[in-house]
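testing teh design pipeline on a random one, pls ignore if ur not involved
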């Protein structure tokens, strides 16, 4: 694996079709699964390691966001990365950089209501990195479902021509979706955070049993989320438009455990109503 700090180094190290995994570092097993998928067909697998300042709002955790480049490099190499692109802020945003991507109305809903400007920062850095890396395919985790949906729209609207792949959420043994921010949780908070996957599992169970009423699906989830400061719990169609019972749907949740903000979701498909339960089959929420 080659570590590239500049765009010329990146271009010299990359060849042929490129599969790209954008990250902010603090890599974990979820990132490793994306890297393995990127490298699976033998193409050049580029991983970026860049904590993007433009997607953090005032009072958020930019300064304290976990950073361990040596550990990131080891994981990326073991997972099969060809190039680890670790640019400085000035490499990504030169002094004369003045463009911001407005991702549209969806950027102001759900997480966007609680993190103003966040998705503009995400869309801008991702499009910028697409320009630098020049991939034919980019891979993202489905835990960040709203982000994935927005980036698909940006890719389509701007005619970027990149294949956007959403990979399944990877969960820890206690059901919690893997996230770099999980390391902020104390042992007691970690136990409280298990309410999130438990809530999604409850909804998946009654959905599989035939329930399609949005209020009831939300209520069964809400009933186990008392340990969180809930920001939202919403059921929408899988394209994040308003819920319709006969279409694939997604139940999204965001909340805080202590000072740590966590998000998660589960897709509910009427064509395969028991599928959502499978990801929780071997997990222990107690």
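output:
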């Amino acid at each position: 694996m080659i570590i590239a700090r500049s765009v010329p180094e990146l271009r010299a190290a990359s060849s042929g079709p490129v599969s790209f995994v954008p990250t902010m570092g603090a890599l974990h097993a979820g990132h490793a699964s994306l890297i393995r998928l990127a490298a699976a067909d033998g193409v050049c697998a580029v991983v970026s390691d860049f904590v993007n300042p433009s997607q953090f709002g005032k009072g958020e955790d930019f300064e304290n966001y976990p950073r361990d480049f040596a550990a990131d490099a080891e994981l990326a190499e073991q997972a099969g990365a060809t190039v680890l692109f670790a640019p400085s802020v000035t490499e990504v945003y030169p002094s004369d950089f003045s463009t911001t991507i407005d991702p549209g109305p969806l950027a102001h809903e759900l997480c966007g209501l609680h993190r103003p400007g966040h998705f503009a920062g995400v869309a801008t850095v991702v499009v910028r990195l697409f320009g630098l890396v020049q991939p034919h395919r980019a891979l993202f985790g489905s835990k960040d479902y709203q982000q994935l949906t927005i980036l698909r729209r940006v890719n389509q609207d701007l005619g970027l021509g990149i294949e956007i792949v959403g990979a399944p959420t990877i969960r820890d043994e206690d059901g919690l979706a893997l996230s770099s921010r999980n390391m902020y949780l104390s042992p007691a908070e970690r136990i409280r955070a298990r309410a999130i996957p438990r809530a999604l599992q409850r909804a998946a169970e009654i959905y599989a049993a035939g329930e399609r009423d949005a209020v009831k699906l939300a209520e069964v989830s809400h009933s186990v989320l008392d340990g969180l400061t809930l920001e939202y719990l919403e059921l929408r169609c899988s394209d994040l438009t308003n819920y319709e019972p006969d279409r694939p749907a997604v139940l999204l949740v965001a909340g805080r455990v202590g000072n740590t903000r966590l998000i998660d979701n589960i897709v509910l498909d009427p064509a395969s109503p028991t599928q959502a339960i499978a990801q929780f089959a071997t997990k222990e929420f107690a």
